[in-house]
Design brief:
This protein has 14 helices and six strands. By secondary structure, the protein is an alpha/beta fold. It folds into two domains: 172 residues, 3-Layer(aba) Sandwich (Rossmann fold), CATH 3.40.50.300; 62 residues, Histone, subunit A (Orthogonal Bundle). Helix 5 crosses helix 6.
Length: 311
C-alpha cells in the first residue's frame, strides 16, 4: 500500500480587528522563512490601504504577502475566488517547503479554505428584489432589524451594513424555514485538506477597545479622509460594496456634509468595536483555536515551532 502524502501545514492566526495579527505574523514569518496569505476580505482591493490597515510596503518587502491588492474596488471578489487563489498559493509554497501563515479576520474565508463553502438553496431573484426594494424604501437598518427579529443568531454574525449577507440570510430563512446559521452547522463540510495550527489573539476588552481607538485616530492622521476622497475622484461610486464597508462609508458621509469629521470618527470607533465583537463570536465558536495574548510572543513562537518540527 502506498504511503499517503502528508497534508500541507498552515499556521492560521485569527482574532478581532486591531489585536495585532499582522504584527505577530510578520515576526513569525520573518523568523521562520515563511510567507503570509491575507484572509482580509477588504485588503484584496487596490487603492484602499489606510482604511483596511494593509501591511506597509516595508512590511511586505520584509515578508512576502499574498492576496493583497488583487482587484479594483468595482470588481468582484468572494470566498470561492479566495479559496481557489489561496489553494494555488499554498500548493506552491508547500512544494518550496516554506511555512504558510494564513492571517486575517474574515472567518468565512478561513472556514471556506479549510472545509469548503456552504451553498444553501439557490437564489430566488423575486425574493431578493423584494428585500432590495424594502431596503431602498426603509433603509438597511430596517432590513437588519427584520433579520434580528426573525433570526437573532444570523444577525449576531452579520454587519448591519452588509446588505448582501442580510438579504441572503433572510432569503434562506424564507425558502427553507431554517436559520442559515443552523444549516451551516449541520452542513457536512469536506475533509480538511490541511494540517492546521490555529492561533487566536485576544486581550482584555478595555485594552482591545483602546487599541481600536488608537488605530482609528492614526488612520485619520495618516490621510484616510484623502484616501476616500481620491477613490470618489477616481470614479468609484459610494454605493459599491467596498465603499459601503467599515470606515469608508463613514468618511463618505463626512465628505458629503452629512456630519462632522469628529462624528464620523466616533461612529467608526463604535462600529469597529461592534465588528470586533462579531469576530470574537465567530472565532470563539471554533474549539480548535488556541488563545494567547499578543504579548505572549515567546509562548506563541514555541507553539508554532512545535507545529513545524522541521524548523
Amino acid at each position: 500500500m502506498s504511503r499517503e502524502e502528508p497534508k500541507p501545514r498552515l499556521i492560521i492566526i485569527v482574532g478581532p480587528t486591531g489585536i495585532g495579527k499582522t504584527d505577530a505574523a510578520i515576526r513569525l514569518a520573518d523568523e521562520l522563512g515563511g510567507e503570509i496569505i491575507s484572509t482580509d476580505s477588504m485588503q484584496v482591493y487596490r487603492y484602499m490601504d489606510i482604511g483596511t490597515a494593509k501591511p506597509t510596503l516595508a512590511e511586505r518587502t520584509r515578508v512576502r504577502h499574498h492576496l493583497i491588492d488583487v482587484v479594483n474596488p468595482n470588481e468582484e471578489f468572494n470566498a470561492a475566488m479566495f479559496v481557489k487563489e489561496a489553494g494555488a498559493i499554498i500548493g506552491k509554497l508547500n512544494c518550496l517547503q516554506k511555512p504558510v501563515f494564513v492571517v486575517g479576520g474574515t472567518g468565512l474565508y478561513i472556514r471556506a479554505l479549510l472545509g469548503g463553502l456552504f451553498e444553501g438553496p439557490g437564489a430566488d431573484p423575486d425574493l431578493r428584489e423584494f428585500y432590495r426594494q424594502e431596503a431602498a424604501r426603509h433603509g438597511k437598518r430596517y432590513l437588519y432589524e427584520k433579520l434580528r427579529v426573525k433570526d437573532e443568531k444570523a444577525a449576531a454574525l452579520i454587519d448591519g451594513n452588509d446588505i448582501s449577507r442580510i438579504i441572503r440570510a433572510l432569503e434562506v430563512l424564507e425558502l427553507t424555514g431554517k436559520s442559515i446559521v443552523e444549516q451551516q452547522k449541520a452542513h457536512h463540510f469536506r475533509d480538511n485538506l490541511y494540517e492546521c495550527l490555529k492561533i487566536g489573539l485576544m486581550t482584555e476588552r478595555e485594552q482591545l477597545y483602546a487599541r481600536i481607538e488608537q488605530r482609528t485616530e492614526k488612520m485619520i492622521e495618516d490621510g484616510f479622509t484623502d484616501e476616500v476622497r481620491n477613490l470618489l475622484a477616481m470614479g468609484y461610486d459610494e454605493t459599491i460594496k467596498p465603499m459601503q464597508s467599515l470606515g469608508y462609508k463613514h468618511i463618505v458621509g463626512y465628505l458629503r456634509g452629512e456630519y462632522s469629521l469628529g462624528e464620523a470618527v466616533r461612529t467608526i470607533k463604535r462600529d469597529t468595536r461592534r465588528y470586533a465583537k462579531r469576530q470574537l463570536t465567530w472565532f470563539k465558536a471554533d474549539k480548535d483555536v488556541e488563545w494567547f495574548s499578543p504579548r505572549e510572543t515567546d509562548a506563541i513562537r514555541k507553539r508554532v515551532r512545535k507545529a513545524l518540527p522541521c524548523l
